[in-house]
Amino acid sequence: MGLLQLLASLTLVAGLVGTCHAYSLGDFVPTARRGQFQTVSLPIPKPQAFRPGDNYKIQFSFAGDQFVTPWLLVMGRYLSLVSYLDVELTHTGGELRSVRAAVYDLPHRDAAAHPLLVSQWANASHWPKPLLVQYRWVAGAEVRGDHALLLLFAAAAALLGLVLSNAYRSYRRHLAAFVVAVAAPTQPKAD
Length: 191
Ligand SMILES: *[C@@H]1O[C@H](CO)[C@@H](O)[C@H](O)[C@H]1NC(C)=O
Description:
Transmembrane segments: 148-168
Signal peptide: 1-22
Keywords: Membrane, Signal, Transmembrane, Transmembrane helix
Number of strands: 10
Bound molecules: 2-acetamido-2-deoxy-beta-D-glucopyranose
Structural class: alpha+beta
Strand content: 25-35%
């Protein structure tokens, strides 16, 4: 439930899942919300009976549970006051390949630039806490189509060169033998 609420805060588009279910009045309807942005402030609702210093962990799931992050500690006794989350999405060939997520202390420069955010984290009675999440796309190592073709041509050319040089060496050997054979009868006999 907590995770759903967290994901809900990324809201730009809302969609309903599970349309071929029979519902009656008052039933729970599974709901998913999705959003797209590079840096978002994710409101973390107050868990029941939360006390300052308690650990709070969140987990992210991407591409329909294909990639699930470990549980990430974003609030706790041993963390500095304001955390931010860095999420690295690696793509190769138009597909999401991996997701890495890590929690960091908000750098001083950013903390200075966002005094409201800092005061909201410091204020024990202010909820939800705004967790900054930064999403970064990185291109994974990938052999592009044209590079692969170029590599293939280079390999073929090298192979051809090897075959030709072998053929040439063998030709020279044969030619030398032929010249010797042709020259042999005309050589004066040493008698
Ligand atoms: C702390 O947060 C509460 C709830 O948002 C607010 O009413 C109160 O004024 C805040 N206190 C300070 C010192 O900002």
